[in-house]
Amino acid sequence: MEELTGVLPAIKHEKDFEKVLRSKKQKHMIFLESRLSQIPSLVRYAKKENKKVLIHADLIQGLKADEFGMEFLIRDVKVDGIISTRGNVIGLAKKHGLLAIQRLFVLDSHALEHNLKIINNVKPDYIEVLPGLIPKIIREVRDSTNLPVIAGGLIRTEEDVQNAMDGGAEAVTTSNSKLWNL
């Protein structure tokens, strides 16, 4: 399994993509919001610069996050990993040997318990906990699943990154480019 650590850049805009492409420190990039028609060329450019590409399948406009959509990302686009809130999408990613990251929104205790059951069935490679500002919950998810946790959502400062890491996160995702080189 690919090891994810530190700050992982989450790309929303073209200027951010260019910044990560030029970075020597960043090995991974996450595409959060894009159009399906742009994804193949973006991934090709990233691969030319030896970057690993993770796609948030639920947020790509024009992509249906089902078996056929995943087949396109896996066979035609050749992404390195998939992020999704959907257990079936994570299962497909794992089946095809891609890095699989289950995104978990912690809204309340019921949502947390429900999602932990799904995660324990699907067994993703990583869990991304949102919002990533709750170190106690990050540790609880890690301890309940024995899986590495990535903190994401509302990570705005160096202190937020440090608190998430101190809470047990292996990595942090953020679209704040000022934090990418921490």
UniProtKB/TrEMBL annotation:
<dbReference type="InterPro" id="IPR006699">
    <property type="entry name" value="GlpP"/>
</dbReference>
<keyword id="KW-0319">Glycerol metabolism</keyword>
<keyword id="KW-0805">Transcription regulation</keyword>
<keyword id="KW-0804">Transcription</keyword>
<dbReference type="InterPro" id="IPR013785">
    <property type="entry name" value="Aldolase_TIM"/>
</dbReference>
<dbReference type="GO" id="GO:0045893">
    <property type="term" value="P:positive regulation of DNA-templated transcription"/>
</dbReference>
<keyword id="KW-0694">RNA-binding</keyword>
<protein>
    <recommendedName>
        <fullName>Glycerol uptake operon antiterminator regulatory protein</fullName>
    </recommendedName>
</protein>
<dbReference type="Pfam" id="PF04309">
    <property type="entry name" value="G3P_antiterm"/>
</dbReference>
<dbReference type="GO" id="GO:0006071">
    <property type="term" value="P:glycerol metabolic process"/>
</dbReference>
<dbReference type="GO" id="GO:0001072">
    <property type="term" value="F:transcription antitermination factor activity, RNA binding"/>
</dbReference>
<dbReference type="GO" id="GO:0003723">
    <property type="term" value="F:RNA binding"/>
</dbReference>
<comment type="function">
    <text>Regulates expression of the glpD operon. In the presence of glycerol 3-phosphate (G3P) causes antitermination of transcription of glpD at the inverted repeat of the leader region to enhance its transcription. Binds and stabilizes glpD leader mRNA.</text>
</comment>
